[in-house]
Amino acid sequence: MKDQKYYFAVSYLKDVWPKNINNLFLAAPHLYHLLEINYELNDYNSIKDAPYLRATEDDLNTDAEYVDVKLKKYIKLITDRLNSIHNSDYSSNFWHKILSLGFLRYITTFHNTFKICETYFNENDYFCTPLHKDSYFTPKDFEEHRKCFMNSEFGFEQIFSIYINLFYPDKYKNITAQYEHNVAPKLTFRQKIKYSEIYLFGKDLVYLFKDQIVKKRLKIGILGAYFSKGNIDLLNKKSNRKIWLLNFPNYYKLNRTKLSLKDRHAMSAMESDFDKFDQFFFSSMYYCMPSIFIEGFKDIEKKLNSYIKKYPNLKYVVNENWISHTYNSITIALMQEKGCIHIFNEHNSLFHPYAGKLTEYFIDYSDIFTTLGWKSSHPKVKQLGSLFQFTHPVSNVKKHKILFIAGALGFRASHYSGAWGNWEGNAYKAFEFNKVFFSMLQQSTLKKITYRGYPMHKIKHIQLYNKEYYYKDLLKHTIKADVKESSKKQMSEAHLIIIDYMATSFIECFYMNLPTIVFWNKNTVFLKDEYKDFLTPLIKVGICQTDAKEAANFIEKIKDNPEEWWLSKEVQTARNTFIKTNLGKPKALLDYLLSLIQTS
């Protein structure tokens, strides 16, 4: 009987689950979490949970290398196919730049589901309910692609259905469903005005008017770089208006267009040397390749080129968000075709020590890569600094005894990188680390903690674990932080800050010289071999904690006077050495950009 088999669940999209399921096989790590927090675990006779596929550093590196090989192979194929479709002769570097990290995420996400299916699915033990091809969603750009296939239950289901319908044709009855991608959020009156066509048109006119003044003299354009307003104004003033923001009108964005079946057949055609994953991935491209690269490319190419021509003296474009911004990726690639040099200023975190190839991709895709302050022998890399506003005036009035800043844990990692070590199946290890930490603290200490959960409203497009569920009984003794206030402000008002992940907040605390403890779970967040000692100096003085019980004991030891510990000679030496090695001063990047004006 079919109901004696286990239902192979890859998503929490209950609309596609058959009624009266008795037995569940949870193929995705987040499903157990969703059933648990919704109190549904007892609704089934039996539940099996698939072991996480990248539990060790070797697992991670193996998959990262596999995806890297596929990426290089696919870029060559896609270059020929896109040039044929668009009657163009762009290089593979051009298409690689345009596809940017969106395409790497595409391969990674689909490989993840493919590996789950290859490892666990067999028709003797499991049954499933794949989507009909008519239900498949085709994204407009990589923003929609990421939202659907990395961060929606429908997207997980579609990837799985493509696999089943390709390798088990007509084996299972297909069902229909719909991805509600056009559901608009409720807007306030102010937001309605801000996003109205009239307001946007007027905003474009203002930008166009301003641009007319600087277009012909502009040599360095800033596009999608998160510099502080003060630093942008300073660059503009010191360069005699030759460095300024590039403000492209809204008209260049692509509307949804009718799909070209002919071009999509050409794009997804099979080659004789394709292995099973190649077949799966290219089969998916018929439905899942964003339309901006097939149906919409010629239109956006024409419009952007006409706008780029208005900057005849532009020599450099400084941008950091192209890695996650389809339109800026296309813009910069077209600028490079005109001889413009792309300076990629490193985003606001340190990724280079982590296992995987993420930083290598950043460097490869750029003409010049400016770091936050760390050194590299790569000829493209320049050791400089950041113009992001990392600091906030440190308050003399301390409102928080201990401020705990919690990171986000996502259902799916963007890449096979140690930087996302706490995501996916490894999230449970992060839960356990924090749970043990809080449970080891005295109740009087818990009452001194202001707990700042991750501000979910800032990343609504990403599906996140409810991490606080696992230590809610302990958190009831803590103070809930107001996430509407900036984290930097709250950090400046705290005697001691504890951060359970290593990213921007950690750097901000270091720059502001605030007493800081950061967690590093060595069982999930893996470092490259050459950076195994990256955090050792911070571990020795207690800044970086690698064991939950020891971290709790250390907090109990310093909680009454964390400033005394932090300002000790050994701690300040470790902090200053870390900053000197990894974090440069803003002046370094500012002077570098100004120097380019003199030489260009």
* Main sheet attributes: strand count, strand direction, barrel closure: 6 strands, parallel
What does the overall shape look like?
globular
What is the structural class?
A: alpha/beta
**Residues in helix, %:** 40-55%
Percentage beta strand? 5-15%
Count every beta strand, where a strand is a DSSP E run of 2 or more residues. 16
Mean pLDDT metric:
92
State the end-to-end CA separation. Answer: 74 Å
Number of helices: 23
Low-confidence stretches: none
Strand order within the widest beta sheet: 6-5-7-8-9-10
Output the radius of gyration.
25 Å
Overview of the structural elements:
With 600 residues, the chain is α/β, with parallel strands linked by helices. 44% of the residues lie in helices and 10% in strands. The protein has 23 helices and 16 strands. The protein has a six-stranded parallel sheet. Helix 8 (229-238) links the parallel strand 5 and strand 6. Helix 3 runs antiparallel to helix 12 (326-337), helix 9 packs antiparallel against helix 10 and helix 11 packs across helix 12 (326-337). The longest helix is centred in the N-terminal third of the chain and has 30 residues, at 57-86. The chain is globular. The N and C termini lie far apart (74 Å).
